[in-house]
Input
Amino acid sequence: MGCPQNSLNSRHDQGPRVSQESVKLSKAVGGLRCAAVSDVGMRRANNQDSLAVAIAEEEALWSSRGHLFVVADGMGAHAAGELASQIAADCIPHTYHKRRDLAPCEALLAAVHDANARINTKGQNSVDFHGMGTTCSCLALLPGGAVAAHVGDSRVYRLRGDAFEQITFDHSLVWEMAVAGQANEEDVPAYVPKNVITRSLGPNGVVKVDLEGPFALQTGDRFLLCSDGLTGPLSSQLIGLIVGALPTDDATQTLVDLANLLGGPDNITVIVAEVYDTRELGQHDASNPECDPPPANSSADQLPLLSALGVGLIGVVGCPLLWGVEHRVAAGALAVVTGLAAGLLMYARNKPSVTGASLPSPQGKAPYRRYETAPGPESIKPLVEIVRQLEDLEGQRDWQFDWNEIHAERESARNAIAKKDFRGAIVAYSRAVRILMQAVRDSTPEPPSDSSINLGVD
Output
């Protein structure tokens, strides 16, 4: 039986597009705000990325499964990549919520493995889909913390204060070589292709899934999930700067627009989730949350079992005393069965349920990269330069929109910089970027073939 399609999953339009969004969503619920955009980019005819957002609307669902976010970047000829990523985005939330018999971390791993099996089976059964695959980055926000499950080179980041941390490891040739040589990926020879991944869902029947976390949740934490269509054109420092300075809606759109203005060579998918109040999520700020479940021999766990044994003992001892001597043997046997059955039923009803509050000891080695993203004169320079180059383009072709709004935003940014309000400058520059890219979308619905608009930005 196939997995049902989530209404918040991305859908893929056919035909060439210039930065046309396949999906755009925004949601706020109980201490959480999130936004997501999936965009075809500037040079691709189809969007092979998919995403899923499964928000816990009820307190009981939050306690047991929390909020779930998924980004998948498909690969394969023709429509194979689209199908692979869509299977992952549809099946992972479905299986994760279905496996209530498992703890959240185990259910998340089971969901990813199930998606891998489905993609692999589909590829094995069809020549057109043979060898198809997809990356997969999942983030579950739970009462006990944030947990990531990951395969491939899509990424999950966390922004806390001005520290922007990558909490997933890129399963790419560049990263694997860097680790083997105990060096940074920048030190890997340039001839090593950056787009070769070493692990993905689908090509093989069995896949190793990384599990990272749990990471304690604090008010103000922001999480970013993205495909490499974002991290290819943009540096992690610039991404973190935008995520920290803008509301979630504006941050997702600005990041996609910046990637497109810098060439948009690939599909771009971005999810930003902000924890704006942990008290509404069901937990208070804590630097060291209690993530481990209580010991198996704790008094809380022993109480239901002792109750069960007590009921059984009452049945064994009490019932024969009430009957005549000739019935004591038969009654005793019946009492044993009845008493133990009642006791086991009581134990089952009182057995602690599997919730998101009790998570395993920390898994993985995250964070793998850490970037300081405090707004300042140096950190905003890349954004300043991008907007400057955009304005230089004004006289180079016949644009079908008014540049006055962009000029006004740049002037607002300059005034903010003069007042050392660097966050305000980021807001103004980002607004200029969004205005320009929206004008590009409106004026150029369908470019020829696989080309992109030449915006003159390398």
